[in-house]
Design brief:
35% of the residues lie in helices and 17% in strands. With 641 residues, it is an alpha+beta fold.
Length: 641
């Protein structure tokens, strides 16, 4: 499959890594473990969550005679951006055989228009005529290109997650057949969202305002499925829901805002993988990334065609004007986290690019007026793209180090710092210092730490001596091809039960944020049995090629807070993320106890506040969710038509 003459395909670093890794097809599968006799019975001290029995999605494993990549054209920003600014790119996505749709191992693109009630022609990317042209030409009027666009972007984002975490990823409970359903023309609406219940991405389309102030035709149709940022944002919601199901519960202001901020960060850093966009931005900004709007603004066309008159959101906040305030609506609060991480990114870029500027200016570091030398543009573009890939990886990797419930921005800072120290102890460019400083400038502080130093922020090992869990030693685990992939659900159940027997022991429960039924500190409230939500292998690769393996598990417990003194009842989650080394020794326990009085009071305050009332209602003297979280969140910013 070759491109058109002169066309050069961009290959995101993550795509290159996952397509050239040997997996199950190359190595063969390990024999399945014999099921334990106890697998069929339910222990009276714990239970296994549905996620244990739900296998991770299985990407296509490339055979030796198959291509590495499938080059496809996409909009790297949206259709309103001029093509000479790099708005169209030929991007390599991991190759897999595709049925018309396209339908592959991970994604199923629907051709139904939910508003017009018609079915469009399906994109057939394996057709010889389409293959030789590197897919369908970019078009706002051809539904087949719309289908190609969402498939290509979702595939590259999945590859970024797979590279960062070193394993196949599972979808949320709404996805039943291992394939995330994508609807490019779901309905006529100024909205796009991840439907966690149905397990699908829904992209709306609408007429632009008559005063649209970009290249969009006033009153013409705007398709959210053609915005690279929006597609990336929505598939990130789906991937994060598979990693941390409880993060889709509106349990506090930071939890909701984190989902939005995290999806925005992935969209921003993913854009840096397209060379033409980066080169154009370097050229126009004279090498100053903080002034390269095409790299930092999100959903340009959507904002300009809905009356906002600017990009929907931006990563820029160089003066730290955005400060943490838990009364902000989720997008505004999330933008504080985005700005903090992007500030750290620009700080490190300036440090790393300074030597090239000194070489180009005879040591002064002061660039003359006019266009940058061509070679310097390429060097800076390569450096910033690599740095963006690193930031994207450790933002994703940090999710494994987050508590399973009750996430705060301060927790996420601690997760980033711990994950990075765990893999790269020698931080010669002071990435971690730049992050800590950026968070401090925005008043984002973790609770229960003595200072904002690395050693204070890193998660701690268990407070009590815990014996190694022999049944979780890597020599006893069964894999499919390599340690990143468990062989089948019976093996995952065996691993989960081995962990559960340890954490459910009476003397260990408090260490894992759990409590026994009838404990006096519950003040009459009921609790569920501890539930093992997930257990999975993590393979992390550092910048110098170092590789580290761990097991990452989640255990949760629900406290059912009774209605008291006129205050409605509600459910309150606790538990911990547990990280074990290949010998079965517990390295970190990142807990949120159901007994934390401070957390309980903050949860009740949130439910009674203005933000909480958008997502919770009182029925039968108990709080119940209003509806689908992401649909509600994404409606918040929509202006009236």
């Amino acid at each position: 499959m070759t491109g058109q003459p002169g066309a050069t395909a961009s290959t995101p670093e993550a795509t290159e890594a996952v397509t050239q890794s040997r997996g199950e097809a190359a190595l063969g599968a390990s024999p399945a473990a014999a099921p334990e006799k106890q697998t069929a019975r339910q222990d009276d001290r714990y239970e296994l969550g549905a996620g244990i029995k739900r296998r991770s999605a299985a990407p296509h494993e490339r055979a030796r005679n198959e291509p590495l990549y499938r080059p496809l054209r996409i909009f790297t920003i949206d259709p309103a951006v001029p093509r000479l600014d790099g708005a169209v790119a030929l991007v390599n996505v991991p190759y897999e055989p595709l049925a018309p749709g396209p339908v592959g191992a991970l994604f199923k693109v629907d051709n139904y228009d939910g508003f017009e009630k018609i079915r469009y022609r399906r994109a057939d990317l394996d057709s010889k005529e389409v293959l030789i042209r590197d897919g369908y030409d970019p078009s706002q009027s051809d539904p087949r290109f719309h289908q190609q666009m969402v498939y290509a972007v979702c595939s590259t984002v999945y590859a970024a997650f797979r590279k960062a975490l070193g394993r196949h990823l599972g979808w949320g409970p709404g996805v039943q057949d291992g394939k995330l359903l994508i609807k490019p023309h779901a309905d006529h609406a100024r909205n796009a969202y991840y439907d966690e219940r149905a397990g699908e991405l829904r992209f709306g389309y609408f007429e632009a305002d008559q005063e649209a102030n970009d290249n969009t035709l006033p009153g013409g149709f705007v398709f959210t499925c053609l915005s690279h940022d929006i597609v990336t944002h929505e598939v990130t919601h789906a991937l994060l829901d598979g990693l941390r199901a409880q993060f889709s519960q509106p349990s506090g202001p930071d939890v909701i805002a984190f989902h939005e901020a995290f999806a925005d960060l992935v969209a921003i850093f993913q854009r840096f993988s397209y060379k033409e966009v980066v080169l154009n931005a370097i050229q126009k900004s004279h090498g100053v990334i903080s002034e390269a709007n095409y790299l930092t603004d999100l959903a340009l066309q959507f904002g300009h065609t809905t009356g906002i008159e600017k990009a929907l959101r931006s990563a820029l906040d160089v003066n730290a004007e955005r400060r943490y305030d838990d009364t902000l609506e989720p997008h505004a609060l999330g933008s504080v986290l985005v700005a903090a991480i992007f500030e750290a990114f620009t700080t490190i870029y300036q440090r790393k690019s300074a030597r090239y500027l000194r070489l180009a200016t005879g040591g002064s570091g002061v660039l003359p007026e006019g266009e940058l030398p061509h070679d310097l543009q390429n060097v800076l573009a390569d450096r910033v793209a690599k740095l963006a890939s690193q930031f994207l990886s450790f933002c994703i990797r940090a999710v494994d180090y987050c508590p399973p419930v009750g996430l705060t921005f301060g927790d996420y800072l601690r997760a980033i710092i711990t994950a990075d120290i765990d893999l790269v102890p020698d931080d010669i460019w002071d990435y971690r210092g730049a992050l800590i400083q950026a968070f401090r400038r925005r008043n984002i502080y973790p609770r229960d730490v003595a200072s904002l130093t690395e050693d204070a922020l890193v998660w701690r090992p268990p407070r009590i001596a815990l014996p190694p869990i022999e049944d979780l030693h890597f020599r006893k685990l069964q894999f499919s091809g390599e340690p990143g992939y468990a062989v089948e659900t019976v093996e995952l159940e065996r691993q989960a039960r081995a962990l559960a027997r340890c954490i459910s022991r009476k003397e260990h429960m408090r260490e894992f944020g759990l409590v026994e039924r009838g404990d006096a500190e519950l003040e009459g409230d009921q609790v569920t049995l501890p539930r093992i939500e997930s257990i999975r292998t993590s393979r992390r690769t550092g910048p110098d090629g170092q590789i580290a393996f761990d097991l990452v598990a989640e255990v949760t417990q629900v406290r059912k807070v009774l209605a008291k003194k006129g205050r409605p009842a509600f459910e309150y989650h606790g538990g911990s993320t547990i990280i074990l080394d290949p010998k079965g020794e517990v390295r970190f326990v990142i807990l949120k106890s159901v007994l934390g009085q401070g957390r309980l009071d903050r949860r009740r305050e949130f439910l009674q506040g203005a933000i909480g009332k958008r997502y919770w209602k009182v029925e039968g003297n108990a709080y119940k969710p209003v509806g689908e979280l992401f649909k509600l969140v994404h409606k918040v910013e929509q202006p009236e038509s």
